[in-house]
Amino acid sequence: MEKKLINTPETCVDDLVSGLLYMNPKLCKIEGYNAVVRSDILNIKDNYVTLISGGGSGHEPAHAGFIGDNMLSAAVLGNVFASPSVASILATIRVTAGSKGVLLIVKNYTGDRLNFGMALELAKREGIEGMLVIVDDDCALPTSKGITGGRGIAGTVLVHKIAGAVAGSGASLQEVFDAANSAIHSVRTLGVALTTCTLPGVKSSTRLSAPYAIEIGMGIHGEPGRENAELPTTNAAKYIAEVLVDGTVTALTTVPFSLSKEIVILVNNLGSLPALEMSVMIKEIVDLLRSKSYLPVRIYAGPLMTSLDMNGISLSILSLPLDRQEKVLAWLDSPVTAPSWISGSVLAYTSDGILIQNNSITVANDNNKSIISSSFHMSTNTALVIVRTICQTIIEAEPLLSEYDSLCGDGDCGMVMKKGATQLHHDFETMFAESVFTIIIDCACLCDIIANSISASMGGTSGALLELCFRSMSSYFVKQVGNIIYSIETFIPLHLRVFKL
Amino acid sequence: MEKKLINTPETCVDDLVSGLLYMNPKLCKIEGYNAVVRSDILNIKDNYVTLISGGGSGHEPAHAGFIGDNMLSAAVLGNVFASPSVASILATIRVTAGSKGVLLIVKNYTGDRLNFGMALELAKREGIEGMLVIVDDDCALPTSKGITGGRGIAGTVLVHKIAGAVAGSGASLQEVFDAANSAIHSVRTLGVALTTCTLPGVKSSTRLSAPYAIEIGMGIHGEPGRENAELPTTNAAKYIAEVLVDGTVTALTTVPFSLSKEIVILVNNLGSLPALEMSVMIKEIVDLLRSKSYLPVRIYAGPLMTSLDMNGISLSILSLPLDRQEKVLAWLDSPVTAPSWISGSVLAYTSDGILIQNNSITVANDNNKSIISSSFHMSTNTALVIVRTICQTIIEAEPLLSEYDSLCGDGDCGMVMKKGATQLHHDFETMFAESVFTIIIDCACLCDIIANSISASMGGTSGALLELCFRSMSSYFVKQVGNIIYSIETFIPLHLRVFKL
Fold first, then answer.
1. Is the CB of residue A30 less than 8 Å away from at least one CB of chain B?
2. Fewest CB within 10 angstroms: A154, A243, A383, B142, which?
3. Does the distance separating the beta carbons of B271 and A235 come in below 8 Å?
């Protein structure tokens, strides 16, 4: 039994809906059902074709997070991974459908097809005009394996976006239906799971518990994928990018119309993939696509169609039909108010396919940029004697410092101080000892040189503290013109004072 | 060693930065460093106070995701959980600071304080005007435990937002500094971890591997928290909400100014808490706060300051000082272009503290809403004979159906069909058998009654399929006026045809 922040498995979807209402005051619950609808639905439902999606819970933010202007109008939530009841879908259709009709966007699972289909049949008998599209973007399994077609997974979100934009433009039900179907035909998705998902109240599966075990093409309910594999110990990100890109690109060759090289990608976090790894994967996927001469013009990335706590990622590629490329991009770019939709990254290319990006800025990395000079000076010989004496004292004190630190700290103080003193001593002997002339050095410069030696050798907190003190001393000399009143407080910047040095 | 989608632990932050640049073309990398800055920085840096944040990586989307208009100007990225180098911070300050000055927003960790502090000292010597604030919102540990103060965690994001809005309004460096400090003083955060986090290339800790072990107040680098506890097996969400609300509310009593009951909350996903559980937690936290007469007027929720793959959640409460409540809310509401900032949920209350929300809509749940009638009728006696015969045949065929299904399916077909037939038989005998009159029934109604019996008894795919067929037949009768041409295809809606019944 996994640790889960729920109250009971039986009530978790009810609680999820209550949370949704707090997070989005523009939502409204349909009394008696786990279904939510735009709260202004009665005002807008005769102006536009309305859109309903839904299915089992556990895929948040899908689908309720995508309700808003130019996207979904309502969502029906089943229990975790279970299709919603016909009654709840029918109630949602009754509230949501207006005079321009309603489109149901359904993922290709038997339960969803039957329940949404049944509810639509019943609604039609009441005179409601409605249509239904089935999303089957998962290309994990060869279609020869069955007649059921691909499962509906993350690509569904792109279908919501496109259908929502077309509906929002005032199109007819048939036009919205056609645009949704065209999007469905041009999107293919492949996922990889590093772990399975665990349902509330159910024991965790040990299916992927082996150290490097992964499953390519696992479904978003943990259904069997294409094959088991091992994650390589290095370049795992590059390997997974290859698996995902090869799988989706190959699947797209069966698309029934001419495609351009410009594509839209959606990188979906299946639940618990760390954001750092998401960013690494985006880099590898885009690099690989570009190396194959594909030009990703929009990138959408984030947890959009999750599978509870599954650690994994999926890649959806939406091909842009040559004859309506601009149209599809405009639909994707149209603004929405749905809280969980994310604006895509817009990439542009030259006619030669070179990415146009202002992605690097160079700074003069010159630590002597400002010439340090003060009105205080010292001969290098004097400085050398002082530094030599101090350094030797510190080096000799190493055992004592180590002993004291082992009583109140982690015992490395002596070694760290010795390391710094040795470096400083060496630097001074190299810079100053061999000169036969009397050289006068600016005290601000001197402090800076000491700080440089400390910076190059000590590390850790004590190194940084000492370096900071000497930099501050240097600045202090620069600023002073008359008499200097030496006080240790003078050299400690405000933000260090709580350390009570 | 956890499975991680990276290439090597050494290069993962470089790759992370490359991914960031693909995801946000308005960013620009500072050559030679893992630091990113708005690409229009040279055009805007003399118009506004600029803001820099940063720290160790592993907390994505913090901090680079918060770069944009009215929020951060630049972010410096250290290695995973390690402070960035002074050189990289200094380079970032040089690019980012303009004539109005630069503010560094630093989380309260020794390394960050020292390195950001040092870089600022060096920058100041070059004539750059800059200030630094330290965020210490974590209230997990009593301040009596040390002199270092609270750690900087998720509340930092609210400081970014407020400081960014004030800077964006054209305020002076001192004003931005004051607003940031005021936000720091009024925000307190407490987290709970269900698992620790695992660094790239490092073995997973077994610290929280016991079945219900959790740690209250764990830091975002896995630092020790306030106490270990056990997650209750029921009402875990309510329990954690209590821990978080009590901890933060108590900590806020030490805030040095008068507070209103209206508060802002930020519910942070520490990395791998499923979105479903996030929504349940939001419900419980807001319910509990309201029961204590606190009025959350803004709710921000999502993975904002993560800790790699840590499963856990933190609650930040920002108190609104009575004398500048409206101002702070306006700063929080000001629009930003930072891709990872999330618009908060805006909740309003009556003067009696009642939540103003249009959160429920009632639909007439009447399956007889449309009265079914067709021009085709049959006597109930005839219907009873037909149904009885068919049902008895199906019941008797159970062993044969089971045998066939066990050869090509999961073997339950016979039992499911028998269950449906038994129910249908029973329903018909009850409804029609005892009548002594000849009753004429509408054929559309008859089909609907059969569908109801199937719906109530069979379940599964076969039940839904059969129900759908009878509903469709019923609709068909309703629509027909003249002769009926019976064809099985007639009764199967389009979206079921791929099943090739």
1. yes
2. B142
3. no
Tens digit of pLDDT for each residue in B409-456?
777 788 889 989 999 999 988 888 666 677 788 888 889 889 988 887
- Nearest CB to A117: which of B12, B286, B496? B496
**Under an 8 A CB cutoff, do A280 and B12 touch?**
yes
pLDDT at position A30 is 94
Tens digit of pLDDT for each residue in B5-36? 999 999 999 999 999 999 998 999 999 899 99
pLDDT, tens only, B120-130: 988 988 889 99
Task: Say yes or no: B390 contacts chain A, CB-CB below 8 A.
Answer: no
CB contact under 8 A, B465 and A114: yes
Q: DSSP labels for A33-58? A: SSEEEETTHHHHTTTS-EEEEEEEES
Query: What confidence score (pLDDT) does residue B50 get?
Result: 98
Within an 8 Å CB–CB cutoff, is residue B471 touching chain A?
yes
Dihedral of CA B407/B409/B415/B421: which sign?
A: negative
What is the C-alpha end-to-end distance of chain A, expressed in Å?
50
Residue B95 CA to residue A361 CA, distance in Å, equals 8
Q: How far is CA B166 from CA A51, B49, B131, B154, B279, in A?
A: 40, 9, 15, 20, 31
- Find the angle CA(A328)-CA(A331)-CA(A337) to the nearest 5 degrees: 155
ipTM of the complex: 0.85
For residues B41 and A371, the model is more confident at: B41
Q: Is the pLDDT reported for residue A498 higher than 60?
A: no
DSSP reduced 3-state for B426 = helix
**Radius of gyration for the alpha carbons in chain A, expressed in angstroms and rounded:** 32
Per-residue pLDDT at A125 exceeds 90 = no
Residues 341-370 of B with CB under 8 A from A: 342-343, 345-347, 357-365, 367, 369-370
Q: How far is residue A295's CA from residue A213's CA, in Å, rounded to a whole number?
A: 32
**A177 Cβ contact list (under 8 Å, min separation 6):** A103, A131, A133
Contact, A93 vs A115, CB < 8 A? no
Domains of chain A with CATH codes: 12-356 (3.40.50.10440), 377-499 (1.25.40.340)
- C-beta of residue B68 within 8 angstroms of C-beta of residue B336: yes
**Positions of A marked catalytic:** 221
Q: Which residues pair with B80 in a beta bridge?
A: B57
CB within 8 Å of A351: residues ≥ 6 apart? none
User: Among the options B59, B63, B160, B221, which is catalytic?
Assistant: B221
Q: Which helix (H) or strand (E) holds A250?
A: helix A236-252
Neighboring chain A residues of B16 at a CB cutoff of 8 Å = 276, 279-280, 283
Nearest-angstrom CA–CA distance, A342 and A267: 12
Lowest mean pLDDT among A194-198, A415-419, B279-283, B402-406: B402-406
* Residue A486: per-residue pLDDT: 46
pTM: 0.86
Residue type, B501: L
With cut-offs at 50, 70 and 90, classify the pLDDT of residue B147. low
